[in-house]
Amino acid sequence: MEYIYHVAVLFCLYAILATSFNLLVGFAGLFALSHAALYAIGAYTTAILTTTLGLPFPVPLIASILFAALLSIVIAVPALRVSGHYLVIVSLALQVIVLQVIVNWKSLTGGTDGISGVPTYSFGSFALDTPARFLIAAMLGLAACYWVAWRLTRSPFGRALRAMRENESAAQSVGLDILYMKVSVFAISAGLAAVAGSLFARYFSYVGADSFSINETIYILAMVILGGTGNLRGAVLGAAILVVLPELLKFLPMPVDIADKMRLIIYGCVLMAVLVFRPQGLLPELRGKKAMFVQTDAERDEADTAKLLDGETGATSETVLEGRNLCKRFGGITAISDFSIALRSHRITGLIGPNGAGKTTAFNLLTGFLKPTDGQIDLRGKSILGKKPHHLVASGVARSFQDLRLFTNMTVIENVVVALPNQAGHRISNLFLKPLTVRAQERENTALAMQILRFVELDGKAHETAADLSYAEEKLLVVARLLATGAEVLLFDEPMSGLDQTTLREILPVLRRLAERGKAICIIEHNLDVITGICDEVFFLDEGRTMAVGSPAELMSDPELAERYFK
Amino acid sequence: MRKLIAAAIAATAVAFGGSAAAQNAPKDPDKYRAGAILAMSGKADWYGKVMSRAIQLAVDEINEAGGIEGIPLEVIIEDHKSGIAKEGVSAMNRLINIYDVKAVLTSFSPPTLAIAPIADEKGILLLNGGGTSAALVGATNMMFHNRSLASDLGLAAVQRAKKEGLGDMAQLVWKNDAGDSVVAAAAPYWEKEGHKVVATEFVELGASNIDTQVAKIRASRPDWVGLWLFSPESGLGIRKLREFGVDVPLIGIEYTGDVKEIAGKYAEGYEYASDYFIPSDDYPWSKRFADAYEARFGEKAEFYAANYYENVYVLAEAIRRARAKGGDYWDGRKLAEAIRENPTFDSVYGGSMTYQDNGVAKKRVAIFKVENGEGKFVEYVTLN
Amino acid sequence: MDLFLQLLANGLINGSHYALLGLGFGLIFSTTRIVHFAYGPIVTFAAYTAWLISGSMGLPLIVGIAGAVLVAALLGTGSYLTLYRALERNGAPPLIPLIASLGLTIVLENLVGVLFGTGVRTLDVDSSVHFLGPVFFTSIHVWQVVSFVVIAVALGAFLRRTRYGRAILAMTDDPEMARVIGIDTLKVSIIVFALGSAISAVPAVMVLLKDGASTHMGFAAVFMGFVAVIVGGVGSLRGAIAGGYLVGLVESLGLWQIPTEWQGSISFVVLFLMIMLRPQGLFSMARK
């Protein structure tokens, strides 16, 4: 039955589109709704190159992929600046603009007439000119695209993408390169969509702008969401359902004049019903042990863990990170001024002061999340001014957030593994060129992450979803994640707040032990018991100014401070 | 020996005669199944409604009269969702594979262009009665059009303007293949006549707001405005131009029930070039069709209805002619061949029509003028 | 210059139309954060209802408008209670309602076609042409502007002066906090869906009077409403108004020198630049 083969070809095209869109929407969390425009670029590039230049396979396919990938970088630019609903609208706008350019560029694209007579694939005398034969090409295309997507998502890179989706600033804070990840996932997603576009041109032999409207983007999005975002098989299942369902509905007998509208009504109702009853999509994202792609039982000796947990300096205390005369103004408001601090190995430094004193701003300046208006920051005597947070993490400065910012929809161990430094698998090229290295390293990293979890006593919950942890466990996970970065300077933003005494007694020694092993630690804290208990030096800030510096005991005995702050 | 020769002759005669007889005996199907791919949903579903009704009417008439030489005709209606190529191809595949149709009535450029190669490959006769843009002509030699080319209608309109001695032209154009092909024909003609084209403004299909276009046309101070729009935007164009005080002559290429509905009183005096479908007593068939359509659907028959109604009859006649030749005649290629061999068919417009070599039927294009809401025949146009 | 003035007037008139659509959509979106795409076909339903009452049945226009407002409010409330509420209860992630809303859009849009038939519907009212110097406009244009002003003022008063109005504003600011301080968020959600949809019926009737209603008119309505809200800044109704006017003016004045074949993209180019340069919108509630 040619008709069934035809539906199968359509399924292959949409499965490619849904898979590639899933990379963007499901894994990277980038709701850039301009997928049909990239699909169109793929189709038009192939159509133009085959009809006007007569280029042979596979040149048009490769050109389609490259051109769409290039164009997608234009779309990635807004995604670097805006997110959420804004990205939805900006990308919809781009979709409309790209299509309008295609329609108005008559000399190249045939304008509203489109391009007819695109030749199908033929190898010698064997032409893929029937749906049955074309299905071979379509299935090969789907298999290749699915394999690429599978390689990407079941890898450290895929895990990093999900971390970015869960929380972008937290992803930066564990050393992930957001720019690289966004641009590359856009380019790959676009390239895969272009494969579908190129197949479209070959199969239908006609390319016209009507086939790539906003409705098409929405149709593909519906496939991804229906099937389950963040699950590769889900998107394919979604494509299968939304391609086959309308065809099945065609067999419902109905009065001719309203038949096709009634079918669409039923289609819409089915879509809504599925979403109401399975709001997470038909196939949920992989969790628990299934989220991992290597075995976790591999052991690792204590020495390596010790190396990770140790600072690189010797036993003596020396200045590692130094900020001098730092100043930050937002418009007319001065958040912090003339702030100087030196963080030393083996030492715990505390920042205290009322809300709005500028403590978190100080953290943001020291870790590259904000650029100081004035002042100097040195790491081991070298200026790190203007460096991006992920660079600083790589150089050894990492921080946590007051509001935790865990990767809540990932497992506990994933939260830790993703933060481990120097992962070959964070580079896409390595996934395809050095798969064995990536795998071996991943095995080591998994074991290392288990060690770190053991250190904070969370190893029993390694495969639970972070969202299911208790508050105290979440705090411990924050510590574990920060440790995993391997940084020698660790800045904790209120690691103790909201914890009861028992838990405090668990965490305090952890910090103490870290300092003993040579880390330079800085904490923001309100709890005076904690401050006096572990800090070597304390900075008291108020309204952006440093009011006092000294040992906890010195500050506590300052009558003025006692009056204003300690009561 | 003579016996032997006689036997040989007889054997040869039987052989030849037998095979000749086999060739002549038509292989009849139980039912003639054809398809129609129309805009049954989406933003241009008005066309689907009109066309599918006319097809139903024609099919029922033919079957009530005993079918085509005793064999019933069935037309399966499919949807291309108002011009989506992919939907057209899916529909085409269904029609061929599930219903085993040999002929398809098609509409709208993108789906028609996309199914043309399939028609070529599988030998399916295509009959198109909707807007005909230049891109469709020659897409496949399996296709025949019973509607004038949009560009011919445009030419007829500018010729009318020339006859009326009008000067500078502004154009309000549908942003699609049909609109573009009218501009391509009309604008050079008018410039060759020594006039200027002072404004060319585009309207999206399904546009609701064309105030800007109209304001620009008004500011260009044209002597007349060419409305290269189809239903229902032509109505919107007429209404807005008049509301904004553009009181120069308006000449367009369409006037349908929807256009009349939107333009309302502003349509008064609007002239348009169109296929000449006016039911009249001179042409009993046209009258019979128009009356039957109105009785059954409660609306006046549009010429789009007439075209698809006519296409069903063209199909029936082509089947008859192919059947007369006998053999395995129920085949798209045989049907197309039958049309090309004798390209003249009765027309519901009156008289007959003849397909030209490019597959487009030469129909009489006439100028109409709207008076009291109805299009009144003014004159025939001979295109030069 | 005359053309410029005319386009300016057109821009202001269309701006009023978009601003009104933006108000209705923004009220729903800013309060519930649901991208209610089915706002579009509800606009269509309202227009067809007005046509049915005042055109087909011949009752006075004011009855038609009342009917349209009622039907829109019912459909809006109904879609919240049957669809979005069910999704909320089942813990759907943020963008699921958007897709479900698209499903609802498909259903409602085709239902209009099934119930009312295809083809354009118009309603003839006595509309006269006025001119102010070189600028032309019709009485329906005047109604568009007036209806917007009246509704915007009334809505402003409602939001600031009444208990429910203040509850809506509180929820727009911070839904979590609203719940904490004891606001019945379910009731507020129902009210904004009813109110936002009711408001949309007015521009719907205006389109019916001005250009005629068609089954697909809703898409432009919801899109322009959405764009107005985003350009203006989510969470700010003043922003939605400003966004509506900005889009109306740009769409109109932008084509002063640019060929009209680009009409479909011009507002999107502005939108694009707007979001890139000022992602928080014209008026932003985002507080840091």
Report on the structure:
Helices cover 56% and strands 12% of the residues of chain A. Chain A has 567 residues and is an alpha/beta fold. Chain A has two domains: 2-286, Orthogonal Bundle (ABC transporter involved in vitamin B12 uptake, BtuC), CATH 1.10.3470; 302-566, P-loop containing nucleotide triphosphate hydrolases (Rossmann fold), CATH 3.40.50.300. In chain A, strand 8 (374-379) and strand 9 (382-383) form a beta hairpin. In chain A, helix 1 (2-27) packs across helix 11 and helix 6 runs antiparallel to helix 9. Chain A is elongated. Chain A starts with a helix and ends with a helix. Chain B has a seven-stranded mixed beta sheet with strand order 7-6-8-9-10-14-15, with helices on both faces. A five-stranded parallel beta sheet of chain B has the order 2-1-3-4-5, sandwiched between helices. In chain B, strands 11-12-13 form a three-stranded antiparallel beta sheet, with helices on one face. In chain B, 45% of the residues lie in helices and 20% in strands. Chain B has twelve helices and 15 strands. Chain C has a domain at 21-215. Chain C has eleven helices and two strands. Chain C has a two-stranded antiparallel sheet. In chain C, helix 2 (39-56) packs parallel to helix 4 and helix 5 (139-161) runs antiparallel to helix 8 (185-210). The longest helix of chain C is centred in the first third of the chain and has 31 residues, at 2-32. Chain C starts with a helix and ends in an 11-residue tail after the last helix. The chains are: A alpha/beta (567), B alpha/beta (384), C mainly alpha (288). Chains in contact: A-B, A-C, B-C. Chain A binds chain C through residues 31, 77-78, 81-82, 85-86, 88-90, 92-94, 96-97, 100-101, 104, 218, 221-222, 225-226, 229, 258, 261-262, 264-265, 267-269, 271-272, 275-277, 279-280, 330, and chain C through 35, 83, 86-87, 90-93, 95-96, 99-100, 102-107, 110-111, 113-114, 226-227, 230, 234, 261-262, 264-265, 268-269, 271-272, 275-276, 279, 288.
How much strand content do the residues of chain A show?
Answer: 5-15%
What class, by secondary structure content of chain A? Answer: alpha/beta
CATH class of the largest domain in chain A: Mainly Alpha
Average pLDDT figure of chain B? 88
The CATH topology name of the largest domain in chain A reads ABC transporter involved in vitamin B12 uptake, BtuC
**Alpha plus pi helix count of chain B:** 12
Radius of gyration of chain A: 28 Å
Structural class of chain B: alpha/beta
- Number of separate helices of chain A: 23
The biggest beta sheet of chain B reads: 7 strands, mixed
* Outline of chain B: elongated
Mean pLDDT of chain A: 88
Please give the largest β-sheet of chain A.
6 strands, mixed
CATH architecture of the largest domain in chain B: 3-Layer(aba) Sandwich
Helix share, percent of chain A: 55-70%
Protein name (chain B): Leucine-binding protein domain-containing protein
Pfam family, one (chain B): Peripla_BP_6
GO biological process, one term (chain B): amino acid transport
Signal peptide (chain B): 1-22
